[in-house]
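@channel anyone free to eyeball this complex?
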Amino acid sequence: MASCSIEDVLAKAERDEAEKLKGITVNKELDLEFDPGNLLAFDKNRLDTREFKDNKREDFLRSLARDNTQLLINEMWKLPTERVEEIIVAKLPDPTTPFPREKPAPKPKPPTKWEQFAKLKGIQKKKKTNLVWDDVHKEWRRRWGYKRAKDDTKEWLIEVPENADPSEDQFAKRNKAKKERVAKNEYNRLKNIARAQKINVPGMGLAPTPRQSKAELAQAVNVAKISTASVGKFQDNLPKEKTPKNTGKRRKFQPLIGDFGSEKQKQLELLKVMDSKKPRLDITKAVNKQMREEDRESAHKRKQGFGKKGRRGNMSGKGKGKGKCPSVDCCQIHKASLVKQSQYKYPTPMGRNIGHS
Amino acid sequence: MKLPGSTGSCRFAGFTVCSFTCSRRCVQTYTMAHRDGIVKAKTRRSKRFLQSREPKLVEGQKSSMIIRGGNTSETVSQALKDVYALKKPNAVLYKRKNMVRPFDDSTALEFFSKKSDCSLFLFGSHNKKRPNNLVFGRMFDFHVLDMFELGIERFVSLRDVKTDTCPEGTKPMLVFSGELFETDREHQRLRNLLTDFFCGPRVSAVRLAGLEHVLHFTALEGKIYMRSYKVLLKKSGCRTPRIQLQDMGPSFDLVMRRSHMPSDDLYITAHKKPQVAKPKKKKNISHDAFGTRLGRLHMQKQDLDKLQTRKMKGLRKRRGGQTAETPATKAPRTDE
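replying in thread with the prediction:
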């Protein structure tokens, strides 16, 4: 008896459930495909075309739509909900339908020259305050921009520095300096862009512009000349053109960010030298220099002995005008001999030779 | 790209500014120069505008442009206006006549797309050969990705249906019926395009009471029926409401005409997702059920004969035996 009643109770409960859900259940052959993220439902079932006649078309479509929408709504009500400001809101999952993008994905920008250097040296960006205290106006002002704290352009008085030309316009000089800084900034920005896009741009002054100075043109000509496969070896010169002889680097500098270890060593050594009280004298160098001097003196003396006296005589006449001694050493020797000659009480400029002739 | 040359006394100098005229090519170079960052924006507002047009990692909503063709009938004009009403905040309607033939020459469409930053388009026209023509299309990188030409056979406008409509900008529910959408490749793409066109903004959560609008597409006997209904949520026995639909809005009976499908690699490129930097997962570390952290060590293969073990004095071989262990090894502390 009890078992019967239990079964009855269960059956009754089931029927009640079915009654409740009667409103929202829909029978379909195939289940629908849902994409709640897009509020999308796709019904793959075959449509009965018999019901699809002219006058009943709308009704058929409406009932079909109602069934499918009911299923979609059932699906939506299964999603987790939360209460946002007294409104019940269902959280949507990510959409599963793949859509093509509007624009291609952005490529990560390569770092600029400064960013590379900062990364290498370990320089961190320091966050600066927006406002700075301005003592002149006694208030907080912007760091840069409209009505900034230290505004150079608003100064009506500029002191002329000691070593400057008094007739120079200091205001114009300041303006020009600012323009140069702005132009340099712009140039570097464009260079960064060119490097990022891997566009090869010609160096400073080589791109053609309306006005180019003589030096820039000459540089452009030289660069064009060596831009051949054999680096300008077989390029002929123009009739009066001279090949520049002093090409190449004249000084070699250490790279800016190179071997940190050796940089540290060098700087420590420098400090050590500065600290030590001893004078920095290289004895070997000093001795070698003295020896060379003496050798030169003796060589010159020998030459003097066998040398051309007549030429010396001529030289004395022209001495004050254009005449120069053939070598600087010669004059030095003469000065040295002057010192010696003073002992002999004949203070003639050319010393012994004149006496001789 | 031109770099600045030098002028006069200034070593670094000013640069040529591309003056903006209304010709198309100039617009292209101007926008490209802006995109490359060569020409900087002069105001904050313009900078924000240009940033909004840049490609982003995660894309927002696509806007669409609705263009009127060279000659349009009353049906087509009304249809365009109705679709514009459906897509209101993110659509532009070009009401003037534009002599454009999308299937022959798509450069005009691409120009419009670049100007208005829209990637979806709907082009309506009417001529004797193709009466009441609608072309739905999509762009990728301002080039046409795919296009579908549909002809309107029957159209009921918003004005003709005198019922109250749902507010502008509600995200509609989309329902597709018919196995044709599953089996035929063109119809599959069309389904994707229609979903893309009519689905609203991408949202993370939706108000359940606000699901009012549903667009229903049926593919039957080679035709596509589009109906738009207003959803009425009625009380049912349980939590989930019972649905009743009310006729609303435009309804179309469409027939598929021509189509332009993209090549497979273009389609794949368009779907490419950007490589978002994922945090590097530490390998060989795992956690067991009790929360203890376990690690894995990978060793080289060991020769078990030569393994260094505890030395048992008693087991040592006597007289010329293998004492590979040198006297330098420490004797173990514990006594054996």
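from a first look: Confidence is low (pLDDT under 50) at residues 313-325, 351-357 of chain A.
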